[in-house]
Specification:
Layout (H helix, E strand, L loop, with lengths): L5 H7 L14 H20 L11 H14 L2 H7 L24 H7 L20 H11 L2 E2 L7 H13 L4 E3 L11 E4 L2 E8 L3 E2 L5 E2 L1 E6 L3 E6 H10 L4 E3 L16 E12 L4 H5 L4 E7 L3 H4 L14 E13 H12 L8 E2 L5 E2 L4 E3 L2 H13 L5 E4 L4 E4 L3
Antiparallel strand pairs: 1-8, 2-9, 3-4, 3-9, 4-7, 5-6, 7-8, 10-11, 10-12, 11-15, 13-14, 16-17
Helix pairs in contact: 2-3, 6-8
Length: 396
């Protein structure tokens, strides 16, 4: 038996080896699967299906809408059945799928949303026929590919979701502000969308500005689409939302707020940690914070605090400011340098995993420029570009 190869050994044991066929899905099927996986993760975390209601958070309501739509799509139910042992798609509150063959012409038109009178029985009047531009926009939105460098963006999505739940950000109906800029977040088809890149702007035939965008989605996909296409998709999606910036509102003002401090200090720290990644990039990895007291007191126990990477730190820069809102200012730094936030998890003194949020892979001169732009108010126009290692205008 020692001379038998693997196939002969399996044959002798009565084990039949059949080639495994890799499942091939269309882009639409991949999107349906990814969307249903989000719902399954919600169910696993909460022990129940997502529900509608004003008292629910925005993500649960989006998942509830998505689940309703999947329940009404017979093709989706068949595709997702192997992933649905709990029978989410067969729940009693779901709408019965439409059987087109069982409907007469009028009923079918009603289901398609094309049952309005044509006006004087004009059979030449086309209704509900999408234009070429609309069809092209829909194709661009659907044409998503896997985001190979999603790890770089994952902390951004985690922070945005947390800030939405904490009320630091809001999800507003898209339309009142239809602008799309570098660094903006939206909700489209139940996914958070992040505008990671904005190409050179051109003019459409009607004189409107347009640009090619790189949009990253929270389900680890991305799309290379035009700004106008994204706008049309957000208008069309009933659940399409703009996610406000966490730093919306004035940083400085005449009226004191609960979290305001009369004077404070922005401090920039450099870690003395011996963790290989930190040691290798020590000159670029910085922690940015704001305190109303003494910086020295703030960092006195750094070596025992996971927030400071359980190591002593060096103060490399400080900036004095007056009448500032600490929370808004820290959130502003997180927005600006979010694309460069380091993705690092360490264990605290009790062995619990901790993910520090305020450490960024950013050169010190860029931080200095950001503080200067905060002081003169021009920072709102800028975001940090990790590829260029510099601040760039969010909209050209």
């Amino acid at each position: 038996m020692a001379d038998m190869n693997d196939d002969e050994l399996l044959d002798a044991l009565g084990v039949e080896v059949a080639p495994v066929k890799a499942a091939a899905y269309t882009r639409l099927e991949e999107r349906l699967i990814a969307g249903f996986e989000d719902i399954l993760r919600f169910v696993e975390a909460n022990g129940r299906a997502p529900q509608h209601g004003e008292d629910r958070d925005i993500f649960e309501r989006l998942y509830a809408v998505r689940l309703d739509r999947l329940r009404g799509m017979s093709d989706a139910r068949e595709l997702l059945a192997p992933m649905d042992p709990a029978g989410l798609l067969d729940a009693s509150e779901s709408a019965a799928p439409v059987d087109a063959d069982a409907l007469d012409d009028e009923a079918l038109l009603a289901e398609l949303g094309a049952d309005e009178p044509a006006g004087e029985d004009d059979i030449t009047l086309l209704r509900h026929v999408p234009s070429h531009a609309e069809r092209k926009a829909a194709e661009e939105i659907a044409n998503r590919t896997r985001c190979e460098d999603f790890d770089k963006f994952k902390p951004l999505f985690e922070r945005v979701e947390q800030e939405l739940n904490e009320g630091q950000r809001k999800a507003l109906r898209f339309g009142r502000d239809a602008s799309i800029d570098l660094g903006n977040f939206f909700i489209l088809d139940g996914q958070i969308a992040y505008v990671a890149e904005v190409g050179e702007r051109t003019r459409t035939p009607n004189g409107e500005s347009n640009a090619r965008l790189r949009v990253i989605f929270s389900n680890e996909t991305e799309s290379n689409l035009l700004e106008r296409s994204l706008q049309r998709a957000l208008y069309k999606d009933e659940t399409g939302r703009r996610i406000t910036d966490s730093a919306t509102g004035p940083l400085f003002g005449d009226a004191m707020e609960p979290d305001d401090i009369v004077s404070g200090t922005i401090y920039v720290l450099r870690s003395k940690s011996t963790v290989p990644y930190i040691a290798e990039h020590r000159e670029l990895i910085h922690k940015i914070g704001v305190t109303g007291g003494k910086v020295e007191a703030r960092i006195a126990n750094a070596a025992k605090d996971a927030t400071y990477l359980l190591a002593d730190v060096e103060v490399v820069a400080t900036y004095k400011l007056s009448n500032i809102n600490r929370t808004k200012l820290e959130n502003l730094f997180h927005r600006i340098f979010g694309p460069a936030q380091i993705d690092l998890t360490i264990d605290d003194r009790f062995g619990n995993p901790v993910k520090p949020r305020e450490w960024f892979l950013v050169p010190l001169p860029v931080i200095d420029e950001a503080v200067s732009r905060i002081r003169d108010g021009s920072i709102i126009q800028y975001v940090y570009d990790p590829k260029e290692a510099s601040l760039v205008r969010g909209k050209q």
